[in-house]
Design brief:
binds pyridoxal-5'-phosphate, 12 helices, Aspartate Aminotransferase, domain 1, alpha/beta, single chain, seven-stranded mixed beta sheet, 40% helix
Length: 366
Protein backbone atom coordinates (compact mmCIF):
# COMPACT_ATOMS: atom_id res chain seq x y z
CA UNK A 1 0.00 0.00 0.00
CA UNK A 2 1.25 3.50 -0.81
CA UNK A 3 0.16 6.24 1.57
CA UNK A 4 1.07 9.76 0.44
CA UNK A 5 2.22 12.22 3.10
CA UNK A 6 -0.46 14.59 1.83
CA UNK A 7 -3.20 14.15 -0.79
CA UNK A 8 -5.48 17.11 -1.43
CA UNK A 9 -7.21 15.71 -4.54
CA UNK A 10 -10.52 15.25 -2.72
CA UNK A 11 -10.26 18.75 -1.30
CA UNK A 12 -10.17 19.99 -4.89
CA UNK A 13 -13.21 17.90 -5.81
CA UNK A 14 -15.14 19.54 -2.95
CA UNK A 15 -14.50 23.09 -4.19
CA UNK A 16 -14.03 22.33 -7.90
CA UNK A 17 -17.21 24.00 -9.22
CA UNK A 18 -16.66 27.19 -7.29
CA UNK A 19 -12.95 27.36 -8.10
CA UNK A 20 -13.33 26.55 -11.81
CA UNK A 21 -16.11 29.10 -12.33
CA UNK A 22 -14.31 31.74 -10.26
CA UNK A 23 -11.03 31.28 -12.12
CA UNK A 24 -12.70 31.38 -15.53
CA UNK A 25 -14.32 34.64 -14.52
CA UNK A 26 -10.96 36.12 -13.46
CA UNK A 27 -9.31 34.94 -16.71
CA UNK A 28 -12.07 36.45 -18.81
CA UNK A 29 -11.96 39.77 -17.00
CA UNK A 30 -8.17 39.80 -17.03
CA UNK A 31 -7.85 41.32 -13.54
CA UNK A 32 -5.12 39.44 -11.73
CA UNK A 33 -3.64 41.47 -8.87
CA UNK A 34 -5.55 42.10 -5.61
CA UNK A 35 -9.09 42.89 -6.90
CA UNK A 36 -12.55 42.36 -5.45
CA UNK A 37 -12.06 38.63 -4.73
CA UNK A 38 -8.94 39.47 -2.73
CA UNK A 39 -10.79 42.15 -0.75
CA UNK A 40 -13.59 39.70 -0.07
CA UNK A 41 -11.11 37.14 1.16
CA UNK A 42 -9.36 39.63 3.46
CA UNK A 43 -12.71 40.49 5.00
CA UNK A 44 -13.78 36.87 5.38
CA UNK A 45 -10.46 35.75 6.84
CA UNK A 46 -10.24 38.65 9.32
CA UNK A 47 -13.77 37.82 10.47
CA UNK A 48 -12.95 34.11 10.71
CA UNK A 49 -9.95 34.91 12.94
CA UNK A 50 -11.89 37.40 15.04
CA UNK A 51 -9.70 40.33 14.01
CA UNK A 52 -10.61 43.65 12.42
CA UNK A 53 -8.26 43.77 9.44
CA UNK A 54 -6.38 41.49 7.09
CA UNK A 55 -3.74 42.32 4.50
CA UNK A 56 -3.08 39.77 1.75
CA UNK A 57 0.55 39.36 0.71
CA UNK A 58 2.44 36.91 -1.44
CA UNK A 59 3.73 34.42 1.16
CA UNK A 60 3.83 33.57 4.83
CA UNK A 61 7.44 34.71 4.95
CA UNK A 62 6.45 38.13 3.58
CA UNK A 63 3.53 38.31 6.02
CA UNK A 64 6.02 37.93 8.89
CA UNK A 65 8.50 40.33 7.34
CA UNK A 66 5.98 43.05 6.53
CA UNK A 67 4.29 42.71 9.94
CA UNK A 68 7.66 43.35 11.61
CA UNK A 69 8.39 46.24 9.22
CA UNK A 70 4.95 47.72 9.97
CA UNK A 71 5.92 47.71 13.66
CA UNK A 72 9.19 49.47 12.71
CA UNK A 73 11.42 46.60 13.77
CA UNK A 74 14.86 47.17 12.24
CA UNK A 75 18.63 47.28 12.70
CA UNK A 76 19.74 47.25 16.34
CA UNK A 77 16.57 45.46 17.48
CA UNK A 78 16.26 41.89 18.71
CA UNK A 79 13.31 39.59 18.09
CA UNK A 80 12.88 36.38 20.08
CA UNK A 81 11.94 33.35 17.97
CA UNK A 82 11.83 29.63 18.72
CA UNK A 83 14.75 27.49 17.54
CA UNK A 84 12.13 24.78 16.93
CA UNK A 85 10.48 26.16 13.79
CA UNK A 86 10.75 26.46 10.03
CA UNK A 87 13.64 28.80 9.20
CA UNK A 88 11.32 31.42 7.64
CA UNK A 89 10.36 32.66 11.13
CA UNK A 90 13.95 33.76 11.69
CA UNK A 91 14.54 34.87 8.09
CA UNK A 92 11.75 37.43 8.39
CA UNK A 93 13.58 38.97 11.36
CA UNK A 94 16.90 39.00 9.48
CA UNK A 95 15.34 40.74 6.46
CA UNK A 96 14.43 43.72 8.67
CA UNK A 97 18.06 44.09 9.79
CA UNK A 98 17.14 43.03 13.35
CA UNK A 99 18.75 40.02 15.03
CA UNK A 100 16.80 36.82 15.65
CA UNK A 101 17.38 35.64 19.22
CA UNK A 102 16.55 31.97 19.63
CA UNK A 103 14.78 30.39 22.58
CA UNK A 104 14.01 26.80 23.54
CA UNK A 105 10.80 24.75 23.27
CA UNK A 106 8.41 23.37 25.87
CA UNK A 107 8.68 19.62 26.17
CA UNK A 108 4.90 19.00 26.07
CA UNK A 109 3.72 21.32 23.26
CA UNK A 110 7.01 21.69 21.31
CA UNK A 111 6.21 25.43 21.27
CA UNK A 112 8.19 28.45 22.46
CA UNK A 113 8.98 28.11 26.18
CA UNK A 114 8.00 31.30 28.07
CA UNK A 115 10.77 30.68 30.64
CA UNK A 116 13.35 30.54 27.89
CA UNK A 117 11.88 33.72 26.37
CA UNK A 118 12.20 35.52 29.71
CA UNK A 119 15.88 34.62 29.92
CA UNK A 120 16.50 36.10 26.45
CA UNK A 121 14.91 39.52 26.97
CA UNK A 122 17.33 42.45 26.76
CA UNK A 123 16.95 46.21 26.41
CA UNK A 124 17.08 45.65 22.63
CA UNK A 125 14.18 43.20 22.47
CA UNK A 126 11.46 44.67 20.27
CA UNK A 127 9.18 41.68 19.69
CA UNK A 128 8.48 38.02 20.42
CA UNK A 129 7.38 35.69 17.64
CA UNK A 130 5.69 32.57 18.96
CA UNK A 131 4.99 29.86 16.38
CA UNK A 132 1.86 27.71 16.59
CA UNK A 133 3.88 24.67 15.63
CA UNK A 134 2.15 21.80 13.78
CA UNK A 135 -1.27 23.39 14.49
CA UNK A 136 -1.23 23.76 18.28
CA UNK A 137 -1.15 27.32 19.61
CA UNK A 138 1.77 28.46 21.73
CA UNK A 139 1.43 29.18 25.46
CA UNK A 140 0.15 32.65 24.68
CA UNK A 141 -0.97 34.02 28.07
CA UNK A 142 2.51 33.81 29.51
CA UNK A 143 4.13 35.16 26.36
CA UNK A 144 1.65 38.04 26.15
CA UNK A 145 2.24 38.81 29.85
CA UNK A 146 6.01 39.04 29.31
CA UNK A 147 5.46 41.28 26.29
CA UNK A 148 3.07 43.54 28.17
CA UNK A 149 5.42 43.90 31.11
CA UNK A 150 8.33 44.81 28.82
CA UNK A 151 6.29 46.93 26.40
CA UNK A 152 7.22 44.85 23.35
CA UNK A 153 5.22 43.40 20.46
CA UNK A 154 3.95 39.89 19.84
CA UNK A 155 3.79 38.76 16.21
CA UNK A 156 2.28 35.30 15.88
CA UNK A 157 3.76 33.02 13.26
CA UNK A 158 0.47 31.29 12.54
CA UNK A 159 1.68 29.74 9.29
CA UNK A 160 0.78 26.30 10.71
CA UNK A 161 -2.13 27.45 12.87
CA UNK A 162 -5.10 28.11 10.55
CA UNK A 163 -8.22 27.83 12.68
CA UNK A 164 -6.47 26.69 15.87
CA UNK A 165 -8.00 27.87 19.15
CA UNK A 166 -6.45 29.17 22.35
CA UNK A 167 -8.96 29.66 25.17
CA UNK A 168 -11.68 29.94 22.54
CA UNK A 169 -9.84 32.56 20.49
CA UNK A 170 -8.40 31.97 17.05
CA UNK A 171 -4.70 31.78 16.34
CA UNK A 172 -3.67 35.00 14.65
CA UNK A 173 -5.93 37.19 16.79
CA UNK A 174 -3.95 36.82 20.01
CA UNK A 175 -0.95 39.10 19.50
CA UNK A 176 -0.40 42.46 17.78
CA UNK A 177 -0.43 40.69 14.43
CA UNK A 178 -0.95 37.16 13.18
CA UNK A 179 0.79 35.93 10.04
CA UNK A 180 -0.43 33.07 7.86
CA UNK A 181 0.95 31.19 4.88
CA UNK A 182 -1.25 29.74 2.15
CA UNK A 183 1.51 27.55 0.75
CA UNK A 184 -0.37 24.57 -0.76
CA UNK A 185 0.40 22.10 2.06
CA UNK A 186 -0.71 24.37 4.91
CA UNK A 187 -4.04 23.95 6.70
CA UNK A 188 -5.57 26.42 4.27
CA UNK A 189 -3.64 26.20 1.02
CA UNK A 190 -3.75 28.17 -2.22
CA UNK A 191 -2.78 26.89 -5.68
CA UNK A 192 0.57 28.61 -5.36
CA UNK A 193 2.18 31.00 -2.88
CA UNK A 194 0.18 33.35 -0.71
CA UNK A 195 0.03 34.81 2.78
CA UNK A 196 -1.87 37.24 4.99
CA UNK A 197 -1.38 39.50 8.00
CA UNK A 198 -4.30 39.64 10.44
CA UNK A 199 -4.54 42.42 13.03
CA UNK A 200 -6.97 44.63 14.94
CA UNK A 201 -4.51 47.53 14.89
CA UNK A 202 -5.59 49.92 12.12
CA UNK A 203 -2.25 51.71 11.95
CA UNK A 204 -0.45 48.40 11.49
CA UNK A 205 -2.90 47.29 8.79
CA UNK A 206 -2.58 50.59 6.89
CA UNK A 207 1.20 50.44 7.09
CA UNK A 208 1.25 46.84 5.82
CA UNK A 209 -1.08 47.76 2.94
CA UNK A 210 1.34 50.44 1.79
CA UNK A 211 4.40 48.24 2.32
CA UNK A 212 2.99 45.46 0.11
CA UNK A 213 2.31 47.91 -2.71
CA UNK A 214 5.54 49.89 -3.33
CA UNK A 215 4.94 52.15 -0.33
CA UNK A 216 2.06 53.65 -2.22
CA UNK A 217 -0.49 56.08 -0.76
CA UNK A 218 -2.31 56.54 -4.08
CA UNK A 219 -1.74 55.71 -7.74
CA UNK A 220 1.30 57.98 -8.17
CA UNK A 221 2.47 58.87 -4.66
CA UNK A 222 4.96 56.78 -2.66
CA UNK A 223 5.51 57.59 0.99
CA UNK A 224 8.46 55.25 1.62
CA UNK A 225 10.42 52.43 0.05
CA UNK A 226 7.86 49.64 -0.14
CA UNK A 227 7.80 46.21 -1.74
CA UNK A 228 5.85 44.22 -4.27
CA UNK A 229 4.09 41.58 -2.20
CA UNK A 230 0.42 41.13 -3.00
CA UNK A 231 -2.04 38.28 -2.95
CA UNK A 232 -3.09 37.30 -6.49
CA UNK A 233 -6.76 37.39 -7.45
CA UNK A 234 -6.45 33.81 -8.67
CA UNK A 235 -5.28 32.63 -5.22
CA UNK A 236 -8.06 34.64 -3.55
CA UNK A 237 -10.64 32.76 -5.64
CA UNK A 238 -9.24 29.44 -4.40
CA UNK A 239 -9.04 30.64 -0.80
CA UNK A 240 -12.61 32.02 -0.85
CA UNK A 241 -13.84 28.63 -2.03
CA UNK A 242 -11.87 26.71 0.62
CA UNK A 243 -12.32 28.91 3.72
CA UNK A 244 -15.93 27.77 4.42
CA UNK A 245 -14.61 24.19 4.74
CA UNK A 246 -11.65 24.95 7.02
CA UNK A 247 -13.38 24.05 10.30
CA UNK A 248 -14.79 20.85 8.83
CA UNK A 249 -11.39 19.85 7.42
CA UNK A 250 -9.69 20.65 10.74
CA UNK A 251 -12.23 18.45 12.53
CA UNK A 252 -11.42 15.62 10.13
CA UNK A 253 -7.73 16.05 11.01
CA UNK A 254 -8.59 16.04 14.73
CA UNK A 255 -10.56 12.81 14.29
CA UNK A 256 -7.64 11.22 12.41
CA UNK A 257 -5.27 12.28 15.20
CA UNK A 258 -7.56 10.64 17.76
CA UNK A 259 -7.54 7.41 15.75
CA UNK A 260 -3.75 7.55 15.35
CA UNK A 261 -3.50 8.08 19.10
CA UNK A 262 -5.70 5.10 19.83
CA UNK A 263 -3.71 2.79 17.56
CA UNK A 264 -0.26 4.04 18.60
CA UNK A 265 -0.84 4.22 22.34
CA UNK A 266 1.14 1.60 24.16
CA UNK A 267 3.67 0.92 21.41
CA UNK A 268 7.01 1.05 23.17
CA UNK A 269 9.23 3.89 21.95
CA UNK A 270 6.39 5.92 20.36
CA UNK A 271 5.26 9.16 22.00
CA UNK A 272 2.04 10.62 20.57
CA UNK A 273 1.39 14.40 20.58
CA UNK A 274 -0.03 16.00 23.72
CA UNK A 275 -2.46 18.90 23.64
CA UNK A 276 -2.50 21.42 26.49
CA UNK A 277 -5.87 21.72 28.27
CA UNK A 278 -6.57 25.37 27.36
CA UNK A 279 -6.27 25.01 23.58
CA UNK A 280 -6.84 22.68 20.67
CA UNK A 281 -4.58 21.25 18.00
CA UNK A 282 -5.63 21.27 14.34
CA UNK A 283 -2.87 18.88 13.25
CA UNK A 284 -1.58 20.54 10.15
CA UNK A 285 1.23 18.14 10.98
CA UNK A 286 0.88 14.95 13.03
CA UNK A 287 4.31 14.34 14.55
CA UNK A 288 5.23 11.53 16.90
CA UNK A 289 8.46 11.19 18.88
CA UNK A 290 10.44 8.03 18.30
CA UNK A 291 13.53 6.38 19.62
CA UNK A 292 15.74 5.36 16.66
CA UNK A 293 13.77 7.77 14.47
CA UNK A 294 16.04 7.64 11.43
CA UNK A 295 15.93 3.84 11.18
CA UNK A 296 12.14 3.83 11.52
CA UNK A 297 11.88 6.52 8.85
CA UNK A 298 13.75 4.33 6.36
CA UNK A 299 11.56 1.34 7.23
CA UNK A 300 8.36 3.32 6.73
CA UNK A 301 9.56 4.63 3.38
CA UNK A 302 10.22 1.02 2.28
CA UNK A 303 6.65 0.14 3.20
CA UNK A 304 5.33 2.99 1.05
CA UNK A 305 4.42 5.37 3.87
CA UNK A 306 5.11 9.04 3.13
CA UNK A 307 6.91 10.57 6.09
CA UNK A 308 8.85 13.79 6.67
CA UNK A 309 10.79 15.46 9.49
CA UNK A 310 9.78 18.93 10.73
CA UNK A 311 12.64 19.77 11.32
CA UNK A 312 15.84 17.71 11.54
CA UNK A 313 18.17 20.72 11.95
CA UNK A 314 17.05 23.36 14.48
CA UNK A 315 17.34 26.91 13.18
CA UNK A 316 20.09 27.94 15.64
CA UNK A 317 22.30 25.19 14.17
CA UNK A 318 21.68 26.08 10.52
CA UNK A 319 24.74 27.19 8.56
CA UNK A 320 22.79 30.30 7.52
CA UNK A 321 22.99 31.46 11.15
CA UNK A 322 26.56 30.35 11.91
CA UNK A 323 27.47 34.03 12.41
CA UNK A 324 25.24 34.16 15.51
CA UNK A 325 27.56 31.60 17.18
CA UNK A 326 25.01 29.26 18.71
CA UNK A 327 26.21 25.74 19.37
CA UNK A 328 24.89 22.26 19.97
CA UNK A 329 23.66 22.05 23.55
CA UNK A 330 22.25 25.59 23.67
CA UNK A 331 18.63 24.38 23.44
CA UNK A 332 18.38 20.84 24.78
CA UNK A 333 14.62 20.36 24.30
CA UNK A 334 14.65 21.62 20.71
CA UNK A 335 17.70 19.50 19.87
CA UNK A 336 16.14 16.36 21.36
CA UNK A 337 12.93 17.00 19.41
CA UNK A 338 14.92 17.47 16.19
CA UNK A 339 16.39 13.99 16.72
CA UNK A 340 13.10 12.31 17.60
CA UNK A 341 10.15 13.83 15.71
CA UNK A 342 8.64 12.16 12.68
CA UNK A 343 5.63 13.52 10.78
CA UNK A 344 3.16 10.84 9.68
CA UNK A 345 0.71 11.19 6.76
CA UNK A 346 -2.07 13.64 7.63
CA UNK A 347 -4.73 15.23 5.44
CA UNK A 348 -8.49 15.70 5.92
CA UNK A 349 -9.67 13.01 3.50
CA UNK A 350 -7.43 10.23 4.83
CA UNK A 351 -9.23 6.93 5.40
CA UNK A 352 -9.16 4.78 8.53
CA UNK A 353 -7.64 1.99 6.42
CA UNK A 354 -4.75 4.30 5.54
CA UNK A 355 -4.21 5.23 9.19
CA UNK A 356 -4.32 1.56 10.16
CA UNK A 357 -1.69 0.73 7.54
CA UNK A 358 0.59 3.54 8.77
CA UNK A 359 0.28 2.37 12.39
CA UNK A 360 0.77 -1.29 11.55
CA UNK A 361 3.86 -0.38 9.53
CA UNK A 362 5.20 1.81 12.31
CA UNK A 363 4.67 -0.97 14.83
CA UNK A 364 6.61 -3.39 12.62
CA UNK A 365 9.44 -0.91 12.21
CA UNK A 366 9.89 -0.32 15.93
C1 LIG B 1 5.34 27.71 5.97
C2 LIG B 1 5.87 28.47 7.09
C3 LIG B 1 6.41 29.76 6.91
C4 LIG B 1 6.61 30.39 5.58
O1 LIG B 1 5.49 30.47 4.76
P1 LIG B 1 5.70 30.63 3.18
O2 LIG B 1 4.32 30.91 2.66
O3 LIG B 1 6.23 29.32 2.67
O4 LIG B 1 6.62 31.75 2.95
C5 LIG B 1 6.81 30.45 8.04
N1 LIG B 1 6.73 29.92 9.26
C6 LIG B 1 6.25 28.68 9.46
C7 LIG B 1 6.17 28.15 10.87
C8 LIG B 1 5.82 27.91 8.40
O5 LIG B 1 5.36 26.68 8.61
Amino acid sequence: MNIPFIDFSQQYQTVKDKVDTGLKDVFERGAFILGQEEKNFEEAFAKYCGAKYAVGVNSGTDALYLALKSLHVGPGDEVIVPAMTFIATALAVSYTGATPVFADAEEHTFNLDPQSVKAKITSKTKAIMPVHLYGQTATMDQILAIAKEKGIFVVEDSCQGHGALYKGKRAGSLGDAGCFSFYPTKGLGAFGDGGIIVTSNKELADQAKMLRDYGRTDRYAHKFIGYNSRLDTVQAVVLNAKLPYLDEWNQMRIDHAAYYGKLLKGIKGVVIPTVAADRNHVYQTYAVRLTHRDKVLEGLKEKGVGVLIHYPIPVHLQEAYANLKYKKGDFPVTERLADEVLSLPMFPHMTNAQIEYVCESLKNCM
